[in-house]
Amino acid sequence: MGVGAIYLLVVGILLVISSIRDMNKTKQALKVTYKMSIMIFPVFFFIFVLMGLFQAFVSREVIAKWFGYGNGPLTVFLGELVGCVALIEPPVVFPFAGFLLEKGANYGAILGFVMTAILIGIVTMPLEFKLFGVKFSIVRNVLVLIFFFIMGLLFRVVL
C-alpha cells in the first residue's frame, strides 16, 4: 500500500468520524477544501508543466553543472538565488526540489532553494517593507540567506 493510499484511507476514516459527530461542520470543511483545491490546482498544474519543460529542454548535465557537487559553495548560493526569485507557492517547492535532485543537484543547493523560496520573496518584499519596516525586512532576509548558506554547506558535507 502506497503513501497516497494510506493518506486517502486516513482522510476517509476522519471524514466518516467527522460526519457522525457533526454533519454541518463536515459540509463546511468540505466546502473550504473545495475552494482551496480550486485555488491551488492551477499553481500545481503550472509547476508540473514547468517541470516537464525543464525535463525536455534542460539536460541533466546542465543542472548538474550549475547545482551539482562540482561547483563547490557556489551551488548553494545559486540555489538560494533561484529560490529568492522563484514565484511558486510553498507546497509546490518540494516537488520541484525533488525534480532538481533527480536531475543531479546536490543537497546543499536544494536546501538553499527550498528555504529561500519559502522564506524570501523578492516580489512580496514591498509588502514586507510596509508591514514590518525596511530595516527589519532587510536584516531578516540577509540572516536567512547567511544561515541557510551555512546550512547548505553543512548539507553538502554531511549528505
Order of helices and strands: HHHHHHHH
Mean pLDDT: 88
The residue ranges in which pLDDT falls below 50 over 5 or more consecutive positions are none
- Outline the biggest β-sheet: none
Distance between the termini: 29 Å
- The oligomeric state of the chains shown is single chain
**How many DSSP H or I helices?**
8
Quick description:
With 159 residues, this protein is an all-alpha fold. The protein folds into 2 domains: 1-57; 59-159, no CATH class. 84% of the residues lie in helices and 0% in strands.
Question: What does it look like?
Answer:
The chain has 159 residues and is mainly alpha-helical. The protein has 2 domains: 1-57; 59-159, no CATH class. The chain has 8 helices and no strands. The protein has helices at 3-21, 23-57, 60-67, 74-85, 90-102, 107-119, 125-132, 134-158. The model has no long low-confidence stretch (mean pLDDT 88).
Topology, pairings included?
Blueprint: H1 3-21, H2 23-57, H3 60-67, H4 74-85, H5 90-102, H6 107-119, H7 125-132, H8 134-158
Helix pairs in contact: 1-2, 4-6, 5-6, 6-8, 7-8
